[in-house]
Design a protein that fits this description.
Shape: elongated
Order of helices and strands: HEEEHHHHEEHHHEEEE
Strand content: 15-25%
Radius of gyration: 29 Å
Number of helices: 8
Structural class: alpha/beta
CATH class of one domain: Alpha Beta
Helix content: 25-40%
CATH topology of one domain: Pantoate--beta-alanine Ligase, Chain: A,domain 2
Strand order of the largest sheet: 1-2-7-8-9
């Protein structure tokens, strides 16, 4: 009798164990299925968001093409420069913004400076001084860009400096591909310095003139030593009322020609634009950055595209 009871006890325990295993397997399969469904849904949403970003590119190119057909100058009062509110789309929304890449100081222009007549370097140094930053940091940027390993004295930095950091890396020794790369350069790992300078500088591979109709007040002031804050205020006020149609018109204003002696790299129109698009579908959000080139005849093309932080 005792043997039968023991056998029944073992049978019950075995049955309970089987039920527990089956329940565990069922829960595991259900969980994995839910994860697969969520993963697949996110992948589909991500692809959809990316396609919306590409659609925004096409839309922006049409705006830029139409703008060139209407006039030959570019200023902040035009349609392409207007902030567009979020546009609802199926499953989410999309919003984008076009900015003028020729409204800022291109750090890569430092490579184009002639030894006997530097232009980009003194402008960047003036910009940093006016922003309350140490303009000696420009030396570190130049060392990051140039193709040699000779450290500029006293504030430059080459491999000798970067390879002795806690997380070592090498100097790029090439043009900057993204402005966020500036955070790798000696001195710019300080968030305060980086964030202060960021709105007024950019980095793309082609050197282009500065558009005085769209440049920030700080960039305008960096064009020459003798430009005062009141001069900049007058320039901004004038171009808000009516944009400058020629560089000669600009230099004639308030006799700026006596202060700005070099105007070869200034313009009143723009060829290069940055399109920033935020696409949100469901729980998926992507950011895309596209550099759009527009030729003098209005033809546009995307010459660079990236996702994430620019």
């Amino acid at each position: 009798m005792a043997t039968i009871v023991r056998q029944r006890g073992v049978a019950i325990i075995t049955a309970l164990l089987i039920v527990a295993i089956a329940a565990t397997v069922s829960v595991t399969m259900s969980t994995r299925l839910q994860l697969d469904v969520r993963r697949t849904g996110n992948m589909i949403a991500g692809e959809q968001a990316y396609l919306y970003a590409l659609a925004a590119e096409s839309w922006s190119q049409r705006i830029l093409k139409n703008d060139r057909q209407k006039n030959e100058i570019d200023h902040l009062g035009e349609n392409w420069a207007m902030d567009v509110p979020p546009i609802p789309v199926e499953g989410g929304y999309i919003r984008g913004r076009l900015t003028d890449l020729q409204s800022c100081l291109n750090l890569n222009a430092l490579l184009e400076d002639a030894p006997d007549k530097p232009v980009a370097r003194p402008r960047l140094e003036r910009l940093m001084t006016n922003l309350g930053l140490d303009n000696a940091l420009v030396q570190a940027i130049i060392d990051w860009l140039d193709n040699d390993l000779q450290t500029t004295i006293p504030d430059g930095a080459e491999d000798v400096y970067y390879m002795n950091l806690e997380r070592p890396y090498r100097t790029a020794n090439r043009p900057i591909l993204s402005i966020s790369e500036m955070r790798l350069i000696r001195g710019f790992d300080d968030p305060r310095i980086y964030e202060t300078l960021l709105p007024h500088v950019c980095a793309f591979g082609i050197t282009a003139p500065i558009n005085i109709n769209t440049a920030s007040a700080e960039v305008l002031r960096s064009l020459a030593d003798g430009i005062s804050p009141s001069d900049v205020n007058d320039i901004v006020k004038q171009r808000t009322e009516e944009a400058f149609n020629t560089i000669q018109e600009f230099t004639s204003f308030n006799e700026l020609g006596k202060i700005i002696t070099s105007t070869e790299d200034l313009s009143v129109d723009t060829e290069y634009f940055m399109l920033t698009v935020e696409s949100t579908i469901g729980q998926v959000r992507i950011m895309t950055y596209s550099i759009i080139h527009r030729s003098s005849d209005g033809a546009t093309r995307v010459i660079a595209r990236s996702q994430g932080a620019y």
